[in-house]
Amino acid sequence: MVYTLIFLTLFKFDSLNVRFIGNFPFGPANAVTYDSSRKVLFLGSGGGVYILDVSEPSNPRKISDKIRTRGIVSSLFYLNKILYIANGYGGLEIWDVSHLQNPSKFSSYILEEFVYDVFVCSSYAYIVSDSCFRILDITVPQNPREVGHCYLPDIANSLFIKGNYAYVGANRMGVRVIDITYPAEPREVGHLYVYSCVFDIYLLNNYLYLIDLQNWLRVIDISIPHIPREIGVFWDSFPHYQIFVLDTFCYTASGIGLTIFNVSNPQRIYKVGYYDSPTYGKYIYVCGLYAYLTDGEKGLRILNISDPRNPLELGKYEVPHITKDVSIYSSYAFIAQSLSGLKILDISNPQNIIEISTLYLPGNTNKIFLSFPYAYICGDSGLRIIDISNPYNPYEVGHWDDTATSANDIFIVYPYAYLLGNYQLLRIIDISDPRNPVEVNSFTTRMNFIYGIYVVYPYLYIVGLNPTFMIYDISNPYNPFEVGYFHLPGAYASDVVVLFPYAYFTIRHPGRLVIVDVSNPSSPYGISEYNLSDLINTSLFLSLPYAYIAGNHTFRIINVSNPYS
Question: 82-283+294-299: which CATH topology?
Answer without folding.
Answer: Methylamine Dehydrogenase; Chain H (2.130.10)
